[in-house]
Amino acid sequence: MTVSSATSTGTGTSSPSTTGTSTSSSSSAASTNPSGVDWNALIQSEVDAKLAAATTVETSITNNQAKISAYQQMQTLLSSLASAALPFSTSNTSSLSDSTFSARTAAITASGNVSPDSVLAMTVDNGAPTGSYTLTVQQTATEQKVAGTAASSESTALGYTGAFSIGLSGGASANINITSSMSLQDIVGAINTQEDTTNVQATIVQISSSQYELVLSATQDNADIQTASVSGDDVLTNLGVTDSSGKFTDQIQGAQPAIFTLDGIQMTRDSNDISDVLSGTTFHLYQPTPSGASLNIDISPDTSQMATALQTFVTDYNAFRDYVVSQQQTGSDGTAAAGTVLFGDGTMADIMNQLQSAMNTTVGGLSLNDLGLSFTSTNDLQLDTTTLQATLTGNLTGVEALMATQLSFSSGDLATVAAGNSPPSSFTLDLAVDSSGNLASASVNGDSSMFTVSGNTILGNAGTPYAGMALEFTGNTSQSVTVTSASGIASLINNIGTAASDPTTGTLQTLVSGLQTQDDNLQQQVTDIQSEAATYQSELQSQYAQYQAAIQEATTTLSYLQALLNAGSSSS
Questions:
Q1: CA-based diameter of the chain, in Å?
Q2: For position 274, what pLDDT does the model report?
Protein backbone atom coordinates (compact mmCIF):
# COMPACT_ATOMS: atom_id res chain seq x y z
CA MET A 1 0.00 0.00 0.00
CA THR A 2 1.53 3.36 -1.06
CA VAL A 3 0.62 6.91 -0.12
CA SER A 4 2.26 9.55 -2.31
CA SER A 5 3.82 12.39 -0.36
CA ALA A 6 3.91 16.07 -1.15
CA THR A 7 7.25 17.85 -1.43
CA SER A 8 7.90 20.07 1.57
CA THR A 9 9.15 23.62 1.18
CA GLY A 10 11.34 25.83 3.26
CA THR A 11 13.86 23.13 4.20
CA GLY A 12 15.28 21.93 0.95
CA THR A 13 14.22 18.33 1.77
CA SER A 14 11.29 16.14 0.69
CA SER A 15 9.63 12.99 1.98
CA PRO A 16 9.51 10.10 -0.57
CA SER A 17 6.50 7.92 -1.33
CA THR A 18 5.68 5.63 1.56
CA THR A 19 5.45 1.91 1.07
CA GLY A 20 5.14 0.70 4.63
CA THR A 21 8.87 0.99 5.36
CA SER A 22 11.15 4.01 5.71
CA THR A 23 13.04 4.72 2.51
CA SER A 24 15.65 7.03 4.13
CA SER A 25 18.02 6.23 6.97
CA SER A 26 18.98 8.33 10.01
CA SER A 27 22.51 8.80 8.72
CA SER A 28 21.38 10.20 5.38
CA ALA A 29 18.81 12.44 7.05
CA ALA A 30 21.42 13.71 9.50
CA SER A 31 23.73 14.60 6.65
CA THR A 32 21.08 16.78 4.95
CA ASN A 33 19.93 18.79 7.97
CA PRO A 34 21.81 20.31 10.87
CA SER A 35 19.46 18.91 13.51
CA GLY A 36 20.48 15.33 12.86
CA VAL A 37 16.77 14.34 13.07
CA ASP A 38 15.51 11.79 10.44
CA TRP A 39 12.27 13.60 9.62
CA ASN A 40 11.33 11.13 6.83
CA ALA A 41 11.56 8.21 9.22
CA LEU A 42 9.38 9.99 11.75
CA ILE A 43 6.78 10.84 9.11
CA GLN A 44 6.83 7.30 7.65
CA SER A 45 6.31 5.80 11.09
CA GLU A 46 3.30 8.00 11.74
CA VAL A 47 1.78 7.24 8.29
CA ASP A 48 2.39 3.49 8.61
CA ALA A 49 0.44 3.52 11.87
CA LYS A 50 -2.49 5.04 9.98
CA LEU A 51 -2.18 2.56 7.08
CA ALA A 52 -2.14 -0.49 9.35
CA ALA A 53 -5.95 -0.36 9.52
CA ALA A 54 -6.17 -0.49 5.71
CA THR A 55 -3.95 -3.57 5.65
CA THR A 56 -6.35 -5.32 8.01
CA VAL A 57 -9.32 -4.38 5.82
CA GLU A 58 -7.52 -5.58 2.67
CA THR A 59 -6.95 -8.93 4.33
CA SER A 60 -10.71 -9.20 4.84
CA ILE A 61 -11.26 -8.38 1.14
CA THR A 62 -8.78 -11.08 0.09
CA ASN A 63 -10.52 -13.63 2.32
CA ASN A 64 -13.92 -12.66 0.88
CA GLN A 65 -12.63 -13.02 -2.67
CA ALA A 66 -11.40 -16.52 -1.88
CA LYS A 67 -14.86 -17.38 -0.54
CA ILE A 68 -16.54 -15.89 -3.60
CA SER A 69 -14.36 -18.03 -5.86
CA ALA A 70 -15.17 -21.13 -3.78
CA TYR A 71 -18.92 -20.45 -3.88
CA GLN A 72 -18.76 -19.88 -7.64
CA GLN A 73 -16.95 -23.20 -8.03
CA MET A 74 -19.79 -24.81 -6.07
CA GLN A 75 -22.29 -23.11 -8.37
CA THR A 76 -20.60 -24.57 -11.44
CA LEU A 77 -20.43 -28.08 -9.97
CA LEU A 78 -24.02 -28.02 -8.72
CA SER A 79 -25.31 -26.67 -12.03
CA SER A 80 -23.60 -29.58 -13.82
CA LEU A 81 -25.10 -32.03 -11.32
CA ALA A 82 -28.59 -30.55 -11.75
CA SER A 83 -28.23 -30.84 -15.54
CA ALA A 84 -27.06 -34.45 -15.22
CA ALA A 85 -30.11 -35.28 -13.08
CA LEU A 86 -32.57 -33.51 -15.39
CA PRO A 87 -32.96 -36.31 -17.99
CA PHE A 88 -34.12 -38.65 -15.20
CA SER A 89 -36.19 -36.10 -13.30
CA THR A 90 -39.38 -36.23 -15.34
CA SER A 91 -41.37 -38.95 -17.08
CA ASN A 92 -42.44 -37.49 -20.40
CA THR A 93 -43.85 -39.26 -23.45
CA SER A 94 -43.57 -36.20 -25.70
CA SER A 95 -41.45 -36.43 -28.83
CA LEU A 96 -39.77 -33.18 -27.74
CA SER A 97 -38.93 -34.51 -24.29
CA ASP A 98 -35.44 -34.39 -22.80
CA SER A 99 -36.40 -37.23 -20.47
CA THR A 100 -34.14 -40.23 -20.91
CA PHE A 101 -37.15 -42.44 -20.20
CA SER A 102 -38.60 -41.25 -23.53
CA ALA A 103 -35.53 -42.31 -25.53
CA ARG A 104 -36.31 -45.01 -28.07
CA THR A 105 -34.33 -47.37 -30.27
CA ALA A 106 -35.32 -49.68 -33.10
CA ALA A 107 -33.84 -53.13 -33.68
CA ILE A 108 -34.34 -54.57 -37.16
CA THR A 109 -33.77 -58.25 -37.88
CA ALA A 110 -34.56 -60.33 -40.97
CA SER A 111 -36.49 -63.49 -41.68
CA GLY A 112 -35.32 -65.06 -44.94
CA ASN A 113 -32.44 -64.25 -47.24
CA VAL A 114 -32.21 -60.46 -46.91
CA SER A 115 -29.97 -57.91 -45.21
CA PRO A 116 -32.08 -55.54 -43.09
CA ASP A 117 -29.81 -52.55 -43.84
CA SER A 118 -30.32 -52.96 -47.57
CA VAL A 119 -34.09 -52.61 -47.24
CA LEU A 120 -34.85 -50.31 -44.34
CA ALA A 121 -33.56 -47.63 -41.97
CA MET A 122 -35.64 -46.06 -39.21
CA THR A 123 -35.80 -42.81 -37.29
CA VAL A 124 -37.53 -43.12 -33.92
CA ASP A 125 -38.47 -40.02 -31.93
CA ASN A 126 -38.48 -39.71 -28.16
CA GLY A 127 -41.75 -40.95 -26.74
CA ALA A 128 -42.64 -43.17 -29.72
CA PRO A 129 -44.88 -46.10 -28.71
CA THR A 130 -42.96 -49.30 -28.13
CA GLY A 131 -43.91 -52.52 -29.89
CA SER A 132 -42.96 -55.27 -32.35
CA TYR A 133 -43.92 -55.34 -36.03
CA THR A 134 -43.36 -57.33 -39.23
CA LEU A 135 -42.65 -55.44 -42.46
CA THR A 136 -42.40 -56.50 -46.10
CA VAL A 137 -41.73 -54.12 -49.00
CA GLN A 138 -43.34 -54.91 -52.35
CA GLN A 139 -41.95 -51.90 -54.21
CA THR A 140 -40.26 -48.59 -53.46
CA ALA A 141 -41.46 -45.23 -54.69
CA THR A 142 -39.74 -43.77 -57.74
CA GLU A 143 -39.74 -40.45 -59.55
CA GLN A 144 -40.40 -40.12 -63.28
CA LYS A 145 -37.44 -39.48 -65.60
CA VAL A 146 -37.69 -38.75 -69.34
CA ALA A 147 -35.08 -38.01 -72.03
CA GLY A 148 -34.94 -36.30 -75.41
CA THR A 149 -33.02 -37.15 -78.57
CA ALA A 150 -29.33 -36.44 -78.92
CA ALA A 151 -28.14 -32.96 -79.89
CA SER A 152 -24.72 -32.40 -81.43
CA SER A 153 -23.74 -29.57 -79.07
CA GLU A 154 -24.68 -28.38 -75.60
CA SER A 155 -23.44 -24.83 -76.07
CA THR A 156 -24.47 -23.88 -79.62
CA ALA A 157 -27.54 -21.67 -80.06
CA LEU A 158 -30.49 -23.82 -81.13
CA GLY A 159 -32.51 -21.13 -82.88
CA TYR A 160 -35.82 -21.99 -81.19
CA THR A 161 -38.23 -19.28 -80.11
CA GLY A 162 -41.24 -20.18 -78.01
CA ALA A 163 -42.56 -21.09 -74.56
CA PHE A 164 -43.66 -24.28 -72.85
CA SER A 165 -45.14 -25.08 -69.45
CA ILE A 166 -43.74 -27.70 -67.10
CA GLY A 167 -44.69 -29.12 -63.68
CA LEU A 168 -45.91 -32.22 -61.88
CA SER A 169 -49.44 -33.60 -62.00
CA GLY A 170 -51.47 -32.10 -59.20
CA GLY A 171 -48.86 -29.42 -58.56
CA ALA A 172 -47.86 -25.96 -59.75
CA SER A 173 -46.40 -25.36 -63.20
CA ALA A 174 -44.32 -22.58 -64.72
CA ASN A 175 -43.79 -21.25 -68.25
CA ILE A 176 -40.27 -21.52 -69.64
CA ASN A 177 -39.50 -18.84 -72.27
CA ILE A 178 -36.96 -19.76 -74.95
CA THR A 179 -35.17 -17.38 -77.37
CA SER A 180 -33.27 -18.18 -80.53
CA SER A 181 -29.89 -17.48 -78.96
CA MET A 182 -30.31 -20.10 -76.22
CA SER A 183 -28.31 -23.33 -76.23
CA LEU A 184 -29.17 -26.66 -74.60
CA GLN A 185 -27.28 -25.50 -71.50
CA ASP A 186 -29.35 -22.29 -71.42
CA ILE A 187 -32.61 -24.24 -71.63
CA VAL A 188 -31.51 -26.48 -68.73
CA GLY A 189 -30.70 -23.36 -66.70
CA ALA A 190 -34.08 -21.80 -67.47
CA ILE A 191 -35.92 -24.96 -66.39
CA ASN A 192 -33.91 -25.28 -63.16
CA THR A 193 -34.55 -21.65 -62.26
CA GLN A 194 -38.20 -22.66 -61.76
CA GLU A 195 -37.44 -25.94 -59.94
CA ASP A 196 -38.78 -24.74 -56.58
CA THR A 197 -42.14 -24.10 -58.26
CA THR A 198 -42.32 -27.00 -60.69
CA ASN A 199 -40.44 -29.73 -58.78
CA VAL A 200 -38.87 -30.70 -62.11
CA GLN A 201 -35.10 -30.73 -62.60
CA ALA A 202 -33.23 -30.70 -65.92
CA THR A 203 -29.79 -32.17 -66.64
CA ILE A 204 -27.64 -32.89 -69.67
CA VAL A 205 -26.27 -36.39 -70.24
CA GLN A 206 -23.25 -36.56 -72.51
CA ILE A 207 -23.45 -39.76 -74.55
CA SER A 208 -20.35 -39.04 -76.62
CA SER A 209 -18.21 -36.09 -77.67
CA SER A 210 -20.94 -35.03 -80.11
CA GLN A 211 -24.15 -36.34 -78.51
CA TYR A 212 -25.97 -34.59 -75.63
CA GLU A 213 -29.42 -35.46 -74.28
CA LEU A 214 -31.80 -33.37 -72.19
CA VAL A 215 -33.13 -35.36 -69.19
CA LEU A 216 -36.10 -34.19 -67.07
CA SER A 217 -36.52 -35.65 -63.58
CA ALA A 218 -39.32 -35.18 -61.06
CA THR A 219 -38.02 -34.27 -57.61
CA GLN A 220 -41.01 -35.98 -55.97
CA ASP A 221 -41.83 -39.68 -56.06
CA ASN A 222 -45.00 -41.04 -57.66
CA ALA A 223 -45.83 -37.89 -59.61
CA ASP A 224 -45.85 -37.58 -63.42
CA ILE A 225 -44.16 -34.74 -65.28
CA GLN A 226 -46.58 -32.69 -67.34
CA THR A 227 -45.56 -30.39 -70.21
CA ALA A 228 -47.38 -28.38 -72.89
CA SER A 229 -46.35 -26.06 -75.70
CA VAL A 230 -47.57 -22.54 -74.93
CA SER A 231 -46.44 -20.42 -77.90
CA GLY A 232 -44.04 -20.30 -80.82
CA ASP A 233 -41.86 -23.31 -81.57
CA ASP A 234 -42.70 -26.59 -79.83
CA VAL A 235 -39.29 -26.65 -78.13
CA LEU A 236 -39.63 -29.96 -76.27
CA THR A 237 -40.81 -31.74 -79.43
CA ASN A 238 -37.90 -30.25 -81.36
CA LEU A 239 -35.56 -31.59 -78.66
CA GLY A 240 -37.13 -35.05 -78.94
CA VAL A 241 -38.55 -35.03 -75.40
CA THR A 242 -42.17 -35.27 -76.62
CA ASP A 243 -43.78 -36.39 -79.85
CA SER A 244 -46.27 -34.41 -81.90
CA SER A 245 -49.10 -35.47 -79.58
CA GLY A 246 -47.25 -34.27 -76.47
CA LYS A 247 -46.35 -37.72 -75.15
CA PHE A 248 -42.86 -38.46 -73.88
CA THR A 249 -40.75 -40.34 -76.40
CA ASP A 250 -38.27 -41.92 -73.96
CA GLN A 251 -39.35 -42.64 -70.37
CA ILE A 252 -36.23 -43.74 -68.48
CA GLN A 253 -38.13 -44.42 -65.26
CA GLY A 254 -41.81 -44.32 -64.45
CA ALA A 255 -43.39 -42.80 -61.35
CA GLN A 256 -44.73 -45.27 -58.82
CA PRO A 257 -45.70 -45.33 -55.12
CA ALA A 258 -44.12 -47.31 -52.32
CA ILE A 259 -46.12 -50.44 -51.50
CA PHE A 260 -45.46 -52.24 -48.23
CA THR A 261 -47.19 -54.45 -45.71
CA LEU A 262 -47.02 -53.89 -41.93
CA ASP A 263 -48.38 -56.70 -39.77
CA GLY A 264 -50.41 -57.97 -42.72
CA ILE A 265 -51.89 -54.60 -43.65
CA GLN A 266 -50.89 -53.42 -47.13
CA MET A 267 -50.36 -49.68 -47.59
CA THR A 268 -49.13 -47.30 -50.29
CA ARG A 269 -47.32 -43.98 -49.94
CA ASP A 270 -45.95 -41.45 -52.42
CA SER A 271 -42.53 -41.36 -50.75
CA ASN A 272 -39.93 -43.79 -49.42
CA ASP A 273 -39.70 -41.70 -46.23
CA ILE A 274 -42.85 -42.71 -44.40
CA SER A 275 -43.71 -41.00 -41.11
CA ASP A 276 -47.49 -41.38 -40.87
CA VAL A 277 -47.84 -45.10 -40.14
CA LEU A 278 -46.44 -45.40 -36.60
CA SER A 279 -46.52 -42.37 -34.31
CA GLY A 280 -43.06 -40.87 -33.82
CA THR A 281 -41.47 -43.33 -36.25
CA THR A 282 -40.20 -42.80 -39.81
CA PHE A 283 -39.46 -45.66 -42.23
CA HIS A 284 -36.81 -45.08 -44.90
CA LEU A 285 -37.35 -47.68 -47.65
CA TYR A 286 -34.43 -48.61 -49.91
CA GLN A 287 -35.53 -51.63 -51.94
CA PRO A 288 -38.16 -54.40 -51.95
CA THR A 289 -37.76 -57.46 -49.75
CA PRO A 290 -37.18 -60.69 -51.73
CA SER A 291 -40.04 -63.14 -52.02
CA GLY A 292 -40.51 -65.04 -48.76
CA ALA A 293 -38.41 -62.58 -46.71
CA SER A 294 -39.57 -60.06 -44.13
CA LEU A 295 -38.19 -57.68 -41.53
CA ASN A 296 -38.87 -57.90 -37.80
CA ILE A 297 -38.95 -54.49 -36.07
CA ASP A 298 -38.75 -54.00 -32.31
CA ILE A 299 -39.15 -50.45 -30.92
CA SER A 300 -38.11 -50.30 -27.27
CA PRO A 301 -36.72 -47.88 -24.64
CA ASP A 302 -33.11 -46.98 -25.39
CA THR A 303 -31.45 -48.28 -22.24
CA SER A 304 -27.99 -47.50 -23.61
CA GLN A 305 -28.83 -43.78 -23.50
CA MET A 306 -30.03 -44.23 -19.94
CA ALA A 307 -26.79 -45.93 -18.92
CA THR A 308 -24.71 -43.18 -20.52
CA ALA A 309 -26.76 -40.46 -18.85
CA LEU A 310 -26.51 -42.20 -15.47
CA GLN A 311 -22.72 -42.42 -15.76
CA THR A 312 -22.65 -38.66 -16.37
CA PHE A 313 -24.74 -38.22 -13.24
CA VAL A 314 -22.27 -40.36 -11.25
CA THR A 315 -19.32 -38.31 -12.53
CA ASP A 316 -20.93 -34.97 -11.69
CA TYR A 317 -22.10 -36.13 -8.24
CA ASN A 318 -18.60 -37.30 -7.38
CA ALA A 319 -17.10 -34.03 -8.65
CA PHE A 320 -19.27 -32.01 -6.26
CA ARG A 321 -18.80 -34.37 -3.33
CA ASP A 322 -15.01 -34.44 -3.82
CA TYR A 323 -14.97 -30.64 -3.79
CA VAL A 324 -16.91 -30.60 -0.52
CA VAL A 325 -14.45 -33.10 0.97
CA SER A 326 -11.51 -30.96 -0.21
CA GLN A 327 -12.96 -28.04 1.75
CA GLN A 328 -13.13 -30.08 4.96
CA GLN A 329 -9.47 -31.11 5.18
CA THR A 330 -7.54 -30.47 8.39
CA GLY A 331 -3.84 -30.10 9.07
CA SER A 332 -1.74 -32.08 11.52
CA ASP A 333 -2.81 -29.72 14.29
CA GLY A 334 -6.49 -30.38 13.67
CA THR A 335 -7.22 -26.95 12.23
CA ALA A 336 -8.38 -26.16 8.71
CA ALA A 337 -5.82 -27.03 6.06
CA ALA A 338 -4.49 -24.39 3.68
CA GLY A 339 -6.97 -23.56 0.93
CA THR A 340 -10.06 -24.81 2.77
CA VAL A 341 -11.77 -21.44 2.66
CA LEU A 342 -15.21 -23.04 3.21
CA PHE A 343 -14.15 -25.15 6.19
CA GLY A 344 -17.17 -25.48 8.49
CA ASP A 345 -19.39 -23.56 6.03
CA GLY A 346 -23.03 -24.14 6.98
CA THR A 347 -24.48 -23.62 3.49
CA MET A 348 -22.12 -26.14 1.92
CA ALA A 349 -22.87 -28.69 4.64
CA ASP A 350 -26.62 -28.15 4.26
CA ILE A 351 -26.52 -28.71 0.47
CA MET A 352 -24.46 -31.88 0.91
CA ASN A 353 -26.89 -33.18 3.56
CA GLN A 354 -29.85 -32.51 1.24
CA LEU A 355 -28.16 -34.42 -1.59
CA GLN A 356 -27.32 -37.38 0.63
CA SER A 357 -30.88 -37.47 1.93
CA ALA A 358 -32.22 -37.49 -1.65
CA MET A 359 -29.84 -40.29 -2.61
CA ASN A 360 -31.28 -42.46 0.18
CA THR A 361 -34.84 -42.23 -1.18
CA THR A 362 -36.66 -45.50 -1.86
CA VAL A 363 -39.78 -45.91 -4.02
CA GLY A 364 -41.73 -49.11 -4.41
CA GLY A 365 -38.97 -51.10 -2.74
CA LEU A 366 -36.35 -49.85 -5.19
CA SER A 367 -33.27 -47.84 -4.24
CA LEU A 368 -30.10 -46.67 -5.95
CA ASN A 369 -28.58 -50.09 -5.29
CA ASP A 370 -31.09 -51.58 -7.73
CA LEU A 371 -29.67 -49.30 -10.41
CA GLY A 372 -26.18 -50.62 -9.77
CA LEU A 373 -25.24 -47.50 -7.83
CA SER A 374 -23.22 -47.87 -4.63
CA PHE A 375 -20.65 -45.96 -2.64
CA THR A 376 -16.98 -46.85 -2.47
CA SER A 377 -14.94 -46.91 0.73
CA THR A 378 -14.20 -43.22 0.11
CA ASN A 379 -17.94 -42.52 -0.34
CA ASP A 380 -17.65 -41.84 -4.06
CA LEU A 381 -20.55 -43.07 -6.18
CA GLN A 382 -19.90 -45.92 -8.62
CA LEU A 383 -22.05 -47.63 -11.29
CA ASP A 384 -22.38 -51.35 -12.03
CA THR A 385 -23.76 -51.38 -15.58
CA THR A 386 -24.67 -55.08 -15.43
CA THR A 387 -27.03 -54.52 -12.50
CA LEU A 388 -28.39 -51.38 -14.14
CA GLN A 389 -29.15 -53.16 -17.41
CA ALA A 390 -30.95 -55.99 -15.62
CA THR A 391 -33.18 -53.54 -13.73
CA LEU A 392 -33.88 -51.39 -16.79
CA THR A 393 -34.89 -54.47 -18.74
CA GLY A 394 -36.98 -56.03 -16.00
CA ASN A 395 -38.54 -53.06 -14.23
CA LEU A 396 -38.25 -49.84 -16.22
CA THR A 397 -41.50 -48.53 -14.75
CA GLY A 398 -40.09 -48.96 -11.25
CA VAL A 399 -36.88 -47.16 -12.22
CA GLU A 400 -38.92 -44.28 -13.60
CA ALA A 401 -40.89 -44.04 -10.36
CA LEU A 402 -37.67 -44.12 -8.33
CA MET A 403 -35.98 -41.34 -10.30
CA ALA A 404 -38.65 -39.09 -11.81
CA THR A 405 -41.54 -36.95 -10.64
CA GLN A 406 -44.79 -38.93 -10.71
CA LEU A 407 -48.35 -37.60 -10.79
CA SER A 408 -51.49 -39.27 -9.49
CA PHE A 409 -55.10 -38.13 -9.93
CA SER A 410 -58.39 -38.49 -8.08
CA SER A 411 -60.10 -39.01 -11.45
CA GLY A 412 -59.43 -41.60 -14.11
CA ASP A 413 -60.24 -38.97 -16.75
CA LEU A 414 -56.77 -37.44 -16.38
CA ALA A 415 -53.48 -39.03 -17.49
CA THR A 416 -49.88 -37.85 -17.50
CA VAL A 417 -48.21 -36.84 -20.73
CA ALA A 418 -45.44 -34.91 -18.94
CA ALA A 419 -45.11 -34.55 -15.18
CA GLY A 420 -42.85 -31.53 -15.21
CA ASN A 421 -39.83 -31.32 -12.99
CA SER A 422 -41.01 -29.67 -9.80
CA PRO A 423 -44.82 -29.37 -9.58
CA PRO A 424 -46.60 -28.59 -6.31
CA SER A 425 -46.99 -31.63 -4.07
CA SER A 426 -50.81 -31.33 -4.26
CA PHE A 427 -53.33 -29.05 -5.94
CA THR A 428 -56.91 -29.11 -7.21
CA LEU A 429 -57.41 -28.72 -10.95
CA ASP A 430 -60.85 -27.40 -11.90
CA LEU A 431 -61.86 -28.55 -15.39
CA ALA A 432 -64.71 -26.87 -17.29
CA VAL A 433 -66.40 -28.64 -20.20
CA ASP A 434 -68.70 -26.86 -22.67
CA SER A 435 -72.16 -27.97 -23.77
CA SER A 436 -70.65 -30.13 -26.52
CA GLY A 437 -68.50 -32.06 -24.05
CA ASN A 438 -65.28 -30.33 -25.14
CA LEU A 439 -62.68 -29.19 -22.59
CA ALA A 440 -62.96 -25.40 -22.31
CA SER A 441 -60.61 -24.39 -19.47
CA ALA A 442 -58.44 -25.59 -16.62
CA SER A 443 -57.83 -23.49 -13.53
CA VAL A 444 -56.40 -23.60 -10.02
CA ASN A 445 -58.16 -21.60 -7.31
CA GLY A 446 -60.11 -19.78 -10.01
CA ASP A 447 -56.96 -18.75 -11.93
CA SER A 448 -57.09 -20.01 -15.52
CA SER A 449 -53.77 -18.36 -16.51
CA MET A 450 -51.79 -21.26 -15.06
CA PHE A 451 -52.69 -23.63 -17.91
CA THR A 452 -53.35 -23.56 -21.65
CA VAL A 453 -55.98 -25.91 -23.07
CA SER A 454 -55.28 -27.35 -26.53
CA GLY A 455 -57.95 -29.84 -27.53
CA ASN A 456 -57.90 -32.46 -24.78
CA THR A 457 -54.36 -31.55 -23.68
CA ILE A 458 -53.71 -29.35 -20.64
CA LEU A 459 -50.33 -27.59 -20.68
CA GLY A 460 -48.70 -25.84 -17.71
CA ASN A 461 -47.61 -22.34 -18.72
CA ALA A 462 -44.00 -21.17 -18.52
CA GLY A 463 -43.21 -19.12 -15.44
CA THR A 464 -45.83 -20.89 -13.31
CA PRO A 465 -45.38 -23.72 -10.78
CA TYR A 466 -46.92 -26.02 -13.40
CA ALA A 467 -44.41 -25.31 -16.19
CA GLY A 468 -43.47 -28.45 -18.10
CA MET A 469 -46.63 -30.29 -17.06
CA ALA A 470 -48.82 -31.82 -19.78
CA LEU A 471 -52.01 -33.76 -19.01
CA GLU A 472 -54.48 -35.59 -21.23
CA PHE A 473 -58.21 -35.28 -20.43
CA THR A 474 -60.52 -38.06 -21.65
CA GLY A 475 -63.71 -37.07 -19.81
CA ASN A 476 -66.74 -35.12 -21.00
CA THR A 477 -68.04 -33.52 -17.79
CA SER A 478 -66.83 -30.60 -15.70
CA GLN A 479 -65.05 -31.73 -12.54
CA SER A 480 -62.45 -30.91 -9.92
CA VAL A 481 -59.49 -33.27 -9.80
CA THR A 482 -56.95 -33.53 -7.00
CA VAL A 483 -53.44 -33.86 -8.45
CA THR A 484 -50.67 -35.23 -6.25
CA SER A 485 -46.98 -35.32 -7.16
CA ALA A 486 -44.13 -37.39 -5.73
CA SER A 487 -40.51 -36.51 -6.43
CA GLY A 488 -38.00 -39.20 -7.28
CA ILE A 489 -34.27 -39.11 -6.61
CA ALA A 490 -33.32 -37.32 -9.81
CA SER A 491 -36.04 -34.70 -9.52
CA LEU A 492 -35.03 -34.02 -5.91
CA ILE A 493 -31.37 -33.60 -6.84
CA ASN A 494 -32.21 -31.43 -9.83
CA ASN A 495 -34.31 -29.18 -7.60
CA ILE A 496 -31.61 -29.01 -4.90
CA GLY A 497 -28.88 -28.24 -7.41
CA THR A 498 -30.95 -25.67 -9.29
CA ALA A 499 -32.11 -23.88 -6.13
CA ALA A 500 -28.53 -23.56 -4.91
CA SER A 501 -26.77 -22.77 -8.21
CA ASP A 502 -29.21 -20.47 -9.99
CA PRO A 503 -27.09 -17.48 -11.12
CA THR A 504 -29.80 -14.98 -10.21
CA THR A 505 -31.84 -16.28 -7.28
CA GLY A 506 -29.80 -19.25 -6.03
CA THR A 507 -28.67 -19.69 -2.43
CA LEU A 508 -25.01 -19.49 -3.40
CA GLN A 509 -25.54 -16.42 -5.57
CA THR A 510 -27.11 -14.67 -2.59
CA LEU A 511 -23.94 -15.36 -0.61
CA VAL A 512 -21.72 -14.27 -3.49
CA SER A 513 -23.67 -11.03 -3.96
CA GLY A 514 -23.49 -10.33 -0.22
CA LEU A 515 -19.72 -10.80 -0.17
CA GLN A 516 -19.28 -8.66 -3.28
CA THR A 517 -21.29 -5.86 -1.66
CA GLN A 518 -19.24 -6.25 1.51
CA ASP A 519 -16.03 -6.04 -0.51
CA ASP A 520 -17.22 -2.86 -2.21
CA ASN A 521 -17.80 -1.30 1.21
CA LEU A 522 -14.46 -2.55 2.53
CA GLN A 523 -12.64 -1.24 -0.53
CA GLN A 524 -14.18 2.15 0.09
CA GLN A 525 -12.84 1.97 3.64
CA VAL A 526 -9.36 1.25 2.27
CA THR A 527 -9.65 4.18 -0.12
CA ASP A 528 -10.77 6.46 2.74
CA ILE A 529 -7.91 5.30 5.01
CA GLN A 530 -5.35 5.84 2.26
CA SER A 531 -6.76 9.29 1.50
CA GLU A 532 -6.64 10.22 5.19
CA ALA A 533 -3.07 8.89 5.45
CA ALA A 534 -2.01 10.94 2.43
CA THR A 535 -3.54 14.07 3.97
CA TYR A 536 -1.89 13.28 7.31
CA GLN A 537 1.46 12.77 5.60
CA SER A 538 1.19 16.18 3.93
CA GLU A 539 0.33 17.78 7.28
CA LEU A 540 3.31 16.13 8.97
CA GLN A 541 5.66 17.18 6.18
CA SER A 542 4.48 20.77 6.54
CA GLN A 543 4.71 20.63 10.33
CA TYR A 544 8.17 19.03 10.37
CA ALA A 545 9.35 21.46 7.71
CA GLN A 546 8.49 24.26 10.11
CA TYR A 547 10.41 22.46 12.87
CA GLN A 548 13.39 22.11 10.57
CA ALA A 549 13.21 25.78 9.61
CA ALA A 550 13.03 26.81 13.26
CA ILE A 551 15.98 24.61 14.13
CA GLN A 552 17.91 25.99 11.15
CA GLU A 553 17.16 29.55 12.28
CA ALA A 554 18.15 28.75 15.87
CA THR A 555 21.35 27.15 14.68
CA THR A 556 22.19 30.21 12.60
CA THR A 557 21.47 32.54 15.53
CA LEU A 558 23.53 30.38 17.86
CA SER A 559 26.43 30.48 15.43
CA TYR A 560 26.14 34.27 15.20
CA LEU A 561 26.07 34.72 18.98
CA GLN A 562 28.95 32.35 19.35
CA ALA A 563 30.92 34.38 16.86
CA LEU A 564 30.18 37.61 18.79
CA LEU A 565 31.27 36.00 22.03
CA ASN A 566 34.45 34.76 20.45
CA ALA A 567 35.13 38.19 19.01
CA GLY A 568 34.61 39.89 22.41
CA SER A 569 36.98 37.50 24.11
CA SER A 570 39.68 38.16 21.53
CA SER A 571 39.46 41.98 21.88
CA SER A 572 39.79 41.87 25.65
A1: 158
A2: 97
